[in-house]
Amino acid sequence: MFLLAALMFAVTGFVSPEFHSSFAQSASGPVKILTLERAFPLDEPVELSELRARDRVRHARILLGGGNGGRQNSVGGVVDFPVQGSSDPYLVGSKTTMLYFTKVKLGSPPTEFNVQIDTGSDILWVTCSSCSNCPHTSGLGIDLHFFDAPGSLTAGSVTCSDPICSSVFQTTAAQCSENNQCGYSFRYGDGSGTAGYYMTDTFYFDAILGESLVANSSAPIVFGCSTFQSGDLTKSDKAVDGIFGFGKGKLSVVSQLSSRGITPPVFSHCLKGDGSGGGVFVLGEILVPGIVYSPLVPSQPHYNLNLLSIDVNGQMLPIDAAAFETSNTRGTIVDTGTTLTYLVKEAYDPFLNAITNRVSQLVTPIISNGEQCYLVSTSISDMFPSVSLNFAGGASMMLRPQDYLFHYGFYDGASMWCIGFMKAPEEQTILGDLVLKDKVFVYDIARQRIGWANYDCSMSVNVSVTSGKDLVNSGQTCLNISTMDMLLKLFSSILLALLVCISLT
After folding, report:
1. Which CATH superfamily is domain 287-464 in?
2. Catalytic-residue membership of 335
3. What is the pTM (predicted TM-score) of this model?
């Protein structure tokens, strides 16, 4: 039966509900894959001050959160989400607060939405057709879509009396709409915001069910339907259809799917560091040799790690350990929505001094727009030292020069490279895409840890098809994502041969 279902899918792209049910029961924790699209053109240089302004807006969103009424602290991926975007801040070319977006399908019939990928927030929300002040065009070169709740055959309301609304959001009567819909209102530190109501509908994805089968899959999820937006969210030059939160909250799509055993309680990403950018974002575990893990700091709303020390060229910097301690306002956050990396003042000054002292006889230090840069006549790998970020659990993140420097054009015939680590305006250290690129990152929610390993993200990745409930004791089946097209073509050929044989007889 499974072979027949595979053959059906290979040719028609459809698996019947009966087959789908059988697959879901036989496969534990199917791998899910999504694709990310590029948000910015690569041919428009941007000033460092603009990047810092972009990140400040981003950090305001992270630090402020924004649920009203105590419902949710933040707003809001193996489904394979192919990634577009660049870690090169010189090529980002926009002040917008987003770097990557992907496509998701919701409703019946399904409608495709372009949504921002955000590991620093929880909720998936899209723009509702009833929104009166939401943008209708986008400067990102994408078509905007609106969710038509009355037009979806599978849409459902989340009422204020629904246990989901009362337990997760702690909604009060005043926060309910006139028709008893469970509402939300999120405000951000940059003055932007969104409001609307929660609903349920079908979420579509490609599920990797084993070594030889990808099936069109779906599951009902709770998400937000935005009827009002303000601030930057209303601007057409940076408009998308919504935000796809991958945070730790109960209503993130990761949490919703993994709690029902549909996906494993783990997600991963690999961001390409070259000029073309891109990569992969996976609901599931990417397998790579040499991965090291550090435990997540408990009871934190974001993905906090315990950074202990920093080494430059093998020498530990003189930084008071208290600078990295986690509290309500301090700590180290891993955030794909931030371009650069931000160190608290107690760590930034020793870091900058160590780098400059190490290379001052080999390059020409220069201040450009108030930032520390260097004029380099040859490869930075030959002149700049390695850096190690050392975390709890004995896990170190080794950084090459290109992981803490970025190319900022040319000056007097020499290449100008600038420090991509900035002094944090707040008390939190934030690890952005500059150091996250060219690495596999695994967010192991079940074991409460994050792992990483250096990797060429232009290559295909192996993912694990494991139990969605028990990652520790389950066996692992490895699958190379890039082989799926070949497998489907093979199934199609087999089925065609069978049909020919039947017709001949």
Report:
1. Acid Proteases (2.40.70.10)
2. yes
3. 0.76
